[in-house]
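Quick log. Single chain, no ligands specified.
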Amino acid sequence: MSEHKDPQKFVYDFTEGNKDLKDLLGGKGANLAEMTNLGLPVPPGFTITTEACKVYLDSGDEPAELRDEVSAHLDALEKRMGKNLGQADDPLLVSVRSGAKFSMPGMMDTVLNIGLSDASVVGLAAQAGDERFAWDSYRRLIQMFGKTVLGVDGDLFEEALEAAKEAKGVTVDVDLDAADLKKLVKQFKKIVTRDAGRDFPQDPREQMDLAIKAVFDSWNTDRAKLYRRQERIPGDLGTAVNICSMVFGNLGPDSGTGVAFTRDPASGHQGVYGDYLQNAQGEDVVAGIRNTVPLAELESIDKTSYDQLMKIMETLETHYKDLCDIEFTIERGQLWMLQTRVGKRTAGAAFRIATQLVDQGLIDEAEALQRVNGAQLAQLMFPRFDDAASTVLLGRGIAASPGAAVGKAVFDSYTAVKWSRSGEKVILIRRETNPDDLDGMIAAEGILTSRGGKTSHAAVVARGMGKTCVCGAEEIEVDTKRRRLTVGDTVVEEGDLVSVDGSTGKVYLGEVPVVPSPVVEYFEGRMHAGADDADELVAAVHRIMAYADRVRRLRVRANADNAEDASRARRFGAQGIGLCRTEHMFLGERREMVEKLILADTDDEREAALAALLPLQKADFIELFESMDGLPVTVRLLDPPLHEFLPDITELSVRVALAESRKDANENDLRLLQAVHKLHEQNPMLGLRGVRLGLVIPGLFAMQVRAIAEAAAERKNAKGDPRAEIMIPLVGTVQELEIVREEADGVIAEVEAATGTQLKLSIGTMIELPRAALTAGQIAEAAQFFSFGTNDLTQTVWGFSRDDVEASFFTAYLEKGIFGVSPFETIDKDGVGALVRSAVEAGRATRPDLKLGICGEHGGDPESVHFFHEVGLDYVSCSPFRIPVARLEAGRAAAESRGSDSR
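-> predicted structure:
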């Protein structure tokens, strides 16, 4: 349908719009118009556009033309209905309802029964033949209008209502009779006069005009702004206002109101789903003041309306080609449709419904792929706590890595490993983690820290391992010395059970039952599609993933540092390794060997330390190449600051001081302390790391390159197919890369000569500094591939230290709307993204066959994957558990771009 709009037109009758005008008419108005066009029973009305709202919000006043347009449409509505707004003997009543482009349920305002007054309530009673109904409608108007439009505290009305029921000796509103409601109306009007400083308006047009402004104003309430931030809805869209002639579900037992779904939004199964409430208006269903009955019972209450509703639901689902969420009212046996929209659904229902609609011929596979997303797939992959279980909440932190984990509280890595080896499930609890905690993190079921954010060490490593993690739980005080945590008066000792929910950030005392994910079992190859509910979900996921893999252009690799992670990644569909972080190979038992390298005073000592590390590195790479045989493996040479491999400066200083006081100082400790002081940096992330290490410590990178080359040669001679790529980190200028590459080429040539094996090892670099991105054309002269390290690129572009800023001021930035989402979570397209785009263009201008990838955390973020597809990268690389998400989003990006091209 046409999306043409008249820029001077601020009001559209329901007969003039259509479902494609959501930008202008909002979701509710566009769909009311669509149902009207379909000939469905929609009460007549009109919509004030979002453009009018924007003018009002920008200028503080309505557009000059708006009042006349509203008057013209109201006049036409009155003629059609055969009565006037609020006329004394037979009043036309209307609802004034919000309706933004994107659904914001309950966030903005609505006022029903506009047009009732002291005079017209009598006429309504006479026309309806029901005095109680008329006075009940009037008290509802005063209550809603007083709270919504005039700013009266809603509790004052509720208290008066409760007092009236108590005085009558009843518990529900419907047991109040007309006399009771007349008294309540008088009380409500007194409350308005006293608290609003004015009387309740008796002029029906004034009521409507004030309600329209109130709906406009509700766009910027605190709750609406908070909801938009959470849902990433732009703040400049504004809301439409729908003026709809009232129909009444509170006219007796042959009237009622309800909500219906064309399919079950929880499971996706077809059937009769919804709720119905006799003798009620819509807000009664939402408020839950009376118990509804299942929609299926409407068949026995009013079969004619039920049958009509079933036909309308089928019509709407076929027309919208999707699950529809419907609001309806029955007025004395007459069915009226008040709203429809594409319904929200659970992640499992989204996959089931998408494939069901394909099977029914309503949509094709490309459209089915657009009906699901990576966030939904991620929800399906992680285990969850049983929602029905009783829980004791300890605290809440940042949901850093999804999943549900239960175990005994432990407060250091040694204990985590020890208890885990004894068969215990443990939760590693720290103030924050560091590389020394890696063994404990691997051993633990989940990780909990009282400090740090979504990109802290704990969070990044946990996501890479698929471990549940909650970070920054500041209300939890972690005491590692006394081996316990405290929250208020609650104390959790080491060994006590705790449960960590990485999907919500909640931490519970004791054990909460966990429900496993059949989708992960499917990706692991342990489950196949069958007949039961879980297998039906797996079958739906399988079909959509298969199509995504067929159409996607972006390849998906894994960030993996060992053979176990690499094998898991391959099962999950990885097409290689995009980032092997070799620094993770130097922890644990090898730490002392690194200390010897750091403490080496002579060339002989340094060469001996490197020689000892060489066979260990070679063995690591052989395992890695074997697990990824036939697929590319990008190995990043050593990157972190060397002081991370040395003891903590404070602890070591105390140890040395105590030893000196006892006159038994340890020579090795003294040398370590000197090295720690020498290597200590105020900002290690901007210090001696990456390529700088390879240039300052002779032989370090050469040893790693030799280990890679020898491992590749050994695998090749064993009839394997190793495809190693060597990546130089933190390059800022082409000269750095040229020096390291010259050394690497020499080492590779030596290995080729010694083994008699020809190796095709490509050498490239990470682009993780702004200067590297800006000089990408020069760097491409010496690099065969680029991999964008968007974690560090984001840090250096923004001037943020990711381990600090999320816990300090990111919350305020998100609340104030400076960020819609953390730039460490989703790529900042305008800043970081602009550098990526320019580096891609400059790099390929120099070297047309330049291979381009990304290995930062953004590689598994759904929104970021679409950006990387758009700018022309060849692959994304992410943690093993995010590979299916990246595959799905890469397919969605390709299908989306194909759809745009065809249009």
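Residues 174 and 309 are 26 Å apart (CA to CA).
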